[in-house]
Design goal:
CATH topology of the largest domain: Rna Polymerase Sigma Factor, Chain: A
Order of helices and strands: HHHHHHH
Largest sheet: none
Number of domains: 2
CATH class of the largest domain: Mainly Alpha
Number of helices: 7
Helix content: 55-70%
Structural class: mainly alpha
Radius of gyration: 17 Å
Mean pLDDT: 81
Length: 168
């Protein structure tokens, strides 16, 4: 690939890496697994980037690729991760630590969200990112009405789960 494409990808990834970190936070329980999943998502995004046409926003596309990567890895559908040659230009991507201590109030919420099924986790994550239901439905491949109904049910379920832990 040409260096302009690489530089463009690096800038877009740096500007949107919190998407990846938050997905990692939902699908992993420790720092090592978080970093492994983050790296795998970056690799999958890079491999898919030449096919990115710009029809959707980069962030929407990155959600979809990253969520699919996380879901595939943690459902056990992929038992073998394919390795790709790591280009040194990616060594310059700034990895910002996702500090759970700064978001201690969200710890219980993340714990509860982790107990949800994969689609519900993705829906909650996008909702917390203030994505509108049109973008949520496009990314997850469900109707807007279905996204709204599911979100209302998930909110009720999370309230019950957090109340049982004495958090709410």
């Amino acid at each position: 690939m040409n260096t302009n494409l690489e530089q463009e990808f690096v800038v877009l990834l740096e500007n949107n890496q919190n998407i990846l970190h938050k997905i990692c936070k939902l699908y992993t329980a420790d720092l090592d697994a978080h970093q492994d999943l983050f790296q795998e998502m970056v690799i999958q995004l890079w491999k898919s980037y030449p096919k990115f046409k710009g029809d959707a926003k980069f962030s929407t596309w990155a959600y979809r690729v990253s969520l699919n990567t996380a879901i595939s890895l943690y459902r056990g559908k992929r038992t073998k991760i394919t390795l790709v040659e790591w280009d040194q230009s990616f060594a310059n991507i700034r990895y910002e630590e996702y500090n759970a201590d700064e978001e201690e109030q969200l710890k219980h919420l993340y714990d509860a969200v982790r107990q949800l099924n994969d689609i519900d986790k993705a829906l909650v994550y996008m909702y917390l990112e203030d994505k509108d239901y049109a973008e949520i439905s496009e990314t997850l491949g469900i109707s807007e009405v279905n996204a709204r109904v599911k979100m209302n049910r998930i909110k009720s379920k999370l309230k019950v789960m957090l109340a049982k832990k004495g958090v709410v």
